[in-house]
Write a structure and sequence with these properties.
This protein is of the alpha/beta class. It is built from 12 helices and 10 strands. Strands 1-2-3-4-7-8-9-10 form an 8-stranded parallel β-sheet. Strands 5-6 form a two-stranded antiparallel sheet. Helix 5 crosses helix 7, helix 6 crosses helix 7 and helix 11 runs parallel beside helix 12. The longest helix is centred in the middle third of the chain and has 24 residues. The model has no long low-confidence stretch (mean pLDDT about 95).
Amino acid sequence: MREHRETVINALSHKPVAFVPRGELFIRSDFLDRYFGGVSGGFIGQLEAAASGLGLSLVGIDLSGESSRSFLSRKAYQPLKDYFLTGATNGPVSRLIEAYGFRDAMLSLRKKPDLFREMAARFLKEARDTVRMAVNNGFSAMAMADDIAGNNGLLFSSGHFAELILPVYRDYAAIVREQGLFPFIHSDGDMKAVIHLIAGAGYDCLHPVDAQARMDLAELLETFGKHISFMGHIDLLAWSVAHISDEVHRAEEEFKHGGLILGTTGSIPADIPEEKLRAFYPLWEG
């Protein structure tokens, strides 16, 4: 089982890999309940069964809810420590939107930046505690989930991002690295304008490679491949079975020397056609 962690670490370090690792950052409870509902051991047992059944090397854990904090305090995730465990928490922009709504949050970033700074300070304070607890549970990485882009690019100017938001991202990456973990970042949308800034802020991996926002994996490899790794890429919802199979084959050929954790662009819907799921995860038996 240690090969899972080691293979992901090699991929993130841009070293040759025996196989391109697969991973899911967001594993939904409805998916687990549908396909692994009869597994003993509750939520952790379901995750173990899903990781084994799908052939995952990276297993993502949503750490945003109160139940996850209880799991962390009890070290309940330790049975999964042989996988490359990656905790996901909502970032400061997402929290601002949740608190004030999208329109007011976007306006406040320009007109009342102190609101964001206050949110960011609370986020970083919480992060220090969460990351320490994640280490005690055997986690290998932490992902900040902060949707800051749409299909046409950033939700704000790249200059505004660099001035107000990037320093917080840099601080978060430093907190994660200080505990010996790999910093990941998640955002849907077209992120190309700031990938170099995110890599420079200390992040090892960007999720999810949103093809619907013109994020082309081959172009990203050529432009940024020496500076950051990528995770995701396979769009189970939009692509046909043939397209999924072709993209998996292409990725496995082009990323033999690391740089990619192959996964879906979001999460696996419980109602996804089984032929699509099997095209991407051939070990899965249903």
